[in-house]
């Protein structure tokens, strides 16, 4: 044994001459420990060691990339957000928690969505949405539906002799369902409501991505503001349901996209969704006034007749708007004319839609709008105010003693 140091200091044992190589190796190991950090998770542990099979797919070969979701689970990235010297299972700081949350949100940001969005929801068909409303609790909405006032005396006799027929009893339940849906507001907490909204957006824009619940993109579709729900007063979810039918039916989707394209025209532009809501309002009023009872009784359907009449009315408006080069200043007058045609000539409108869908030889003769004679070339009066359903109440006074709300 040999000793180093002297004086009053503590004397430590020195390395023996027999083990110089051992001391030198230990010194080199200590230096290597300070200079080279331990291998990170997901990396090979030593030189020349073979890579374990489970590690092979954590990192792509050169020239390839991994999706964000795969990278976020990689051991290397997990190690980068872990505090230095902290064990894998220990708590991490608040800043690092926030950084990790931001990283996990990269995939959503990359898709161009961001914000409050129902984009992950799959598209919904009209039948699926209708089944939801058939089973949903609409008791509060049904309370808001008021029946048509009963006529008595001479008014009842005149209506019986000359008025439209009454809806058959077996169809009353479907009629009440349609009017209850029209009283149902858009609810952010109802997944089906959000799926309807997202499906309409994707179909009209032909986008594979969804969109945030609120934002200026709804104005581009033709709503009045960042929240479509504010424009559904008077039509409720039935306004969205009819839009959904329009874009999800393979026969009417091309028409819907053509109308939407026209709504983006440089000079003939109009708010597509607001116009759609107004047409739904017209159809609802025709149903309430029993103007559609004959057709409903014939087909033994109510909601299907409403949808077809909605599409037929939109087709008629589209033809007048496009061929007569109408602009937004003509909208109020045209909607009034369309309401008269929908109530007085629903059968003719439906035949026009049928000819358009079937592309029959008689389609050309039915294409000329039949309520355009009174509109002239100048459109509405310059000082006439334009009213849309979103900014006015749905209250119409009927003939005689009946009044609907």
Structural write-up:
With 405 residues, the protein is mostly helical. It has helices at 20-35, 53-56, 68-71, 75-80, 94-104, 106-110, 126-135, 139-143, 154-162, 172-181, 191-205, 217-221, 236-248, 253-263, 272-288, 293-299, 303-323, 331-344, 346-358, 363-367; strands at 3-4, 12-13, 396-397, 403-404. The strands form two sheets. Strands 1-2 form a two-stranded antiparallel sheet. A two-stranded antiparallel ribbon has the order 3-4.
Query: Over the alpha carbons, how many angstroms does the gyration radius reach?
Result: 35 Å
- Secondary-structure-based class equals mainly alpha
User: How large is the count of helical segments?
Assistant: 20
Whole-Å distance between the termini? 109 Å
Brief description of this entry?
This protein is an all-alpha fold and 405 residues long. Helices cover 50% and strands 2% of the residues.
Annotation keywords:
405 residues; 4 strands; disordered C terminus; single chain; 50% helix; two-stranded antiparallel ribbon
């Amino acid at each position: 044994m040999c000793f180093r140091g002297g004086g009053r200091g503590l004397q430590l044992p020195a390395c023996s001459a027999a083990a110089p190589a051992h001391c030198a190796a230990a010194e080199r190991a200590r230096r290597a420990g300070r200079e080279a950090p331990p291998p990170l998770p997901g990396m090979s542990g030593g030189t020349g060691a073979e890579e374990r099979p489970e590690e092979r797919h954590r990192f792509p070969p050169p020239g390839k990339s991994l999706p964000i979701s795969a990278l976020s689970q990689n051991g290397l990235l997990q190690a980068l957000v872990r505090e230095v010297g902290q064990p894998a299972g220990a708590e991490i700081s608040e800043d690092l928690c926030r950084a990790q949350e931001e990283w996990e949100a990269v995939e959503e940001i990359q898709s161009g969505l961001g914000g409050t969005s129902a984009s992950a929801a799959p598209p919904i068909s009209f039948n699926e949405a209708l089944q939801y409303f058939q089973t949903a609790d609409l008791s509060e909405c049904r309370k808001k539906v008021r029946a048509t006032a009963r006529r008595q005396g001479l008014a009842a006799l005149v209506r019986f002799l000359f008025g439209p027929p009454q809806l058959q009893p077996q169809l009353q339940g479907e009629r009440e369902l349609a009017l209850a849906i029209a009283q149902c507001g858009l609810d952010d907490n109802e997944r089906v409501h959000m799926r309807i909204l997202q499906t309409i957006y994707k179909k009209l824009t032909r986008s594979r991505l969804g969109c945030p619940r609120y934002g200026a993109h709804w104005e581009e579709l033709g709503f009045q503001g960042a929240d479509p729900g504010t424009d559904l007063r008077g039509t409720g979810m039935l306004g969205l349901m009819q839009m959904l039918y329009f874009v999800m039916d393979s026969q009417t989707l091309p028409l819907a996209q053509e109308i939407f394209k026209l709504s983006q025209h440089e000079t003939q532009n109009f708010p597509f969704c607001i116009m759609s809501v107004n047409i739904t309002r017209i159809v609802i009023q025709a149903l309430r006034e029993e103007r559609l009872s004959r057709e409903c009784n014939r087909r033994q359907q109510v909601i299907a007749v409403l949808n077809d009449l909605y599409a037929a009315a939109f087709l008629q408006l589209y033809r007048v708007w496009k061929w007569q080069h109408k602009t937004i200043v003509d909208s109020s007058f045209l909607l009034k004319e369309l309401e008269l045609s929908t109530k007085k000539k629903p059968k003719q409108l439906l035949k026009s839609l049928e000819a358009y869908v079937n592309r029959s030889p008689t389609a050309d003769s039915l294409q000329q709008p039949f309520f355009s004679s009174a509109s002239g070339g100048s459109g509405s009066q310059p000082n006439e105010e334009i009213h849309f359903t979103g900014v006015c109440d749905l209250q119409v006074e009927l003939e005689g003693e009946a009044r609907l709300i």
